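hey so u asked for the seq, here:
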Amino acid sequence: MRLAMDFKRSRGDAHGGAANRRAATRVEEPRGKEHPESRGRRFGAFQCLVVLVALGGIAAAEVDWRLKHGVIWYSRARDDTVRQQAAQRYGVGITGKGDGEDADRVAIKTLNPGFRWYVYNSGTDNYVTSRQGTAEHDLLQSLAASTGTDVEEAYLHYWDDTRVVLEGETLLVRGWGGGTAANGAEARLPVYYRNLSRRAVNFSTPRALRLHREVMVHLAFDTPFAGSNLYPEGIFLDNATAQFFNFGNILSGGRVREAPGHPVVGSREHGQWHWSHNLGPFLSALKDTLDAATAWAADGRRKELMINVANIWDDDYVRRDVAHVLFMEFQYNPVRNFGIDLVDEAYRRNSLAEAAGIATFHSAMMARNVQNRQGEYSFGEAMLGNLAFYLIARTPRTLFYEMGTNAPNVAAWDTLTWRGCIDVASAQLGTPTGAPYTLLSGADPMGNAYAVKARRYERGLVVLRNRGDWNQGIEAETAVAVKLPAPLVPVDPNGKIGLAVQEIRLRNGQGAILLGDPGRP
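ran it, structure tokens below
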């Protein structure tokens, strides 16, 4: 959710151009409305496959278990080497469109024709005033005017006069209907910034849903990357969780005009409406539109929707069929994201999505220490821990990115996003032979409850001790001895292969990759 929230502010939206009516005329109702119960039946029909995945019962020949990697690309590459590395390593990228970096996007697709670019859109808000550009808002106004629709139907508004704190400043936003606003524009619900440049959008009426869908499709797919005939393959919506965020701290007022009963923004009632009757149905409709892209896209190719679910998981992402890819920002770093059972839960989520044909995308931060506690991992050790989490919890479609940076122009881009341990895992581990399991559990020398999770591969074993709780540290004193099921060879962050050992020591928040025959479960 915070991955690219400043993308438009810092770089502007150069998607540009006047409204192109082709998007509006070719994307109306691609395959008809699907009744919610139909989605439920489709979801339920996949449950047996979940069991097969969980038991490791899908034969390797039937699925592609190769490691799959994605990249975040929000600047121009430093040189051709970086572009070549990206084309070789990654199959998916999150990026912008219509700026100087289009040359990079074209170069990577040329080097790797199967590469899929997903282009950024904020999702739940638009810039309405900005020196960097207001592409969504401008096109929304144009489309609304052409259909005789009041553009305010496409925005959320405060019902009553509201005092809200944004970026430390107390603001008055006049309410529309129950307050003193003279028109809807004055009452639009602001998010993120005290300058009121970003306003939350409304999807909850058929007209509003259609307008936003057409705007997003137009900006993403109506034109190719500059200087080429290559088009993006998907849309990335940065703010798309089942909760509504970044509306500030409400001091008074705060009731939302569009939600029945005018609940206060951020309340339980507003949250239920926002997901179940506003954003959730829109995401499902947008996904349906992209599913039919071969019939309307300029390049005649399929298109996909990726949504950033930040730190928020809800099984409804799968039940509602809201995306082709769920971007799990910040969720799976074994130091930052505590919980003895988090690995099991991540595997459950991945399996649930896998069974419905939805990919998950692990993009963990590089958290290396715990605030106010001693102990720190090196950058390489943090990357190894992230990789171990991915290897234990993944299903065949799961993507992975070491999110040390989203800017390929930084001098250390290569070492911030990739290490030799990834190459070794890809080349030597083979296919998982079962689901994750608990190898060891107990209390460490500092009294912390812990569980060491493991997963067997054809030619190795991956183990991880996720940090157990919010108040646990990663001190050296937290280390415990872990006896291995067979003599195995450890791999260090840079891919160096050591000597066979029968036992390793794991601190809180630490993982390991080991090669060899791990034996039967």
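The longest strand covers residues 480-491. The domain at 437-515 is CATH 2.60.40 (Immunoglobulin-like).
lmk if thats what u needed
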